[in-house]
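Regression test attached.
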Amino acid sequence: MTTHSHDQDPGANEVTGQPGTFVTRPFAAFGRKVISWVDHMGAAAIFLAKACIMIFRPKQIPGIIQQIYYIGAKSITIIMLVGFFTGMVLGLQSYHALVKFGAQGALGTLVALSLVRELGPVLTAIMITARAGSAMTAEIGIQRISEQIDALDTMRIDPLKFLISPRIAASIISFPLLTALFDLIGILGGFLSGVVLLGVNAGTYFHRVQSSVEMQDVTDGFIKSLVFAVIVTTVCCYQGYFTHMRTDSYGAKGVSLSTTSAVVLSCVLILVADYVVTSFLI
Amino acid sequence: METPLIEFRDVTKRFGSRTILDQVNLKIYEGQVSTIIGKSGTGKSVLLKHIIGLLSPDEGSVLFRGNPIATLKKSEWDAYRVQVSYMFQNNALFDSMTVYDNVALPLQQTMNLSKSEIKHRVMARIEQTELTEVVYKYPSELSGGMQKRVALSRALVTDPTIVLFDEPTTGQDPIRKNAILAMIAEYQRKLGFTAILISHEIPDVFFISNRILALYDGQIVFQGTPEELDEFQHPFKDEVIQSLEGFQEELTGLYSQRHFKVRYQADLSRKRRDDTYAIALFTLVIRAMGAYIDKHFGAVGGFSTRHSINEFVTVLPYSDLDEAGRILEDFAKDFQDRGIRDLESVARKETDSAECIDFTILAGLAQGKPFVEMESIIEFAKFRQEEIARVQCELRR
């Protein structure tokens, strides 16, 4: 695989072979790693910025619709399933905790706020990462190693515009909608376990849901899901797009490692970003 | 002096510590077919990717009509890129798109054409490349040869003026190889584009090339016509051309032109001035015919080569005209009885076509003396050519 002049390895600024003692070498290695990470983050930021600008170029609508179908519509089933059982187990655990304080009436509040503020956006993002994010990395990675991306270049089609921008736009649209669906189904799951199975009053449950969840909670949840959408799509597309720059392996093995890295990194970044965003919103 | 369409001036390209191109200088002229030859892994594809801007040189410059492409303004660069098309070695087709979508993609994405105009242009290319029956299939459902033709259609659909072909015949059977080279030559004549090929099909590719560029050890060691390459003396010739031609020789039973000349001089130099020898000239060359010629004439010390695109010449250094005539009669009978049938069955298998083509094979014999120019004896043999085998479709039905 050849190296492209316009696709220089974003993390290639590592300085190797430096002299040093056994005391300084670990620090040097750590420093190189940090510099590499900073390089990658900078490259990913530029990658994201360019792709976002390209969203508003002509002829993007069909590609975006296609990606909404793939990232959004085809994830509905898994999101509903995970949301439902998350709500159920949340209802079950919360009920047994609240009963100790005689506060089982607050079950609706606990389930709804947990889902809307925290679990909905986070678990939705993780599920989409597993289902669509991994596929994005693998697909783009294979397109890279089979020279399909080079072919786009030769045809004067900007690969960022053609491959990345529709995915980012579709994720920004799909993540909040799927999060809303997750929240709704999760509240129904909590209802099933708390009300139908454990005997909490149905009116109390829904009254608590309605009275405790404010518009600010919903908005905060959506803000998180938008942040996660950008993180997941950027990480997954970036890993696939630069799969040929990997130095640890090549070809199909490189694609598989890129896919693994994309999923692991996305999940970690979702949790890190969740804390950071929450600390700003609270 | 004509300004080259594309010129490399001292272009150097390194990947890490490896220097792939080392001060390469070359010139590509407009409207010509230029073929880059060289050993695998010597940087031919890297060289081609510099032309389309997929790679840029570490040192030196690539010029388009005398202007360095690195200094072109965006509008000039876009105008240049519109003219250039690239056919990848491994086709680089989009495997999640149908044949139609693959060919239509550059039109849909880069031009403001109506759907009907796109369809018209795409279908025209698809028909020209005989892909009509697979238009809505995916690349993975097609044979390697068909995928190659899809890639060719995609490369030509935008009507480019410069087309870069990266090993367009790789992985093709001998008949398809010649068909693809013929197709490139035909389109080049018809559409008038400048073709730049990378190919290992030596000597076949010489027939369609105006210029040959030899890449050896990271440098262009030869650029000129195929005829000039014959006179070129360089280790490249021994390592690349002769090994490839030697391989062809094993496959077809024919000598390369160079080996033929060497053997001709070696055999004829041993003869006395009053000795004679015979030459047979066959017209309408079918690749597999070489094996039959070798079978009959090789047994009596004869050796053969391709004389032109539709002629084989066989030298019989130890036979006079009478003996050559008898061998030719045996050859004609054997070829009429079995050779034509073999060729037809191979052709049908390779092309999936039941179509029959009328053809006639001519052969002529002449006798010469060692000190007489071989070409004049060949001319005489040509003058005496008669029909020795024929396929008439009407009679075979």
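Expected vs. actual: identical. Chain B has a mean pLDDT of 82.
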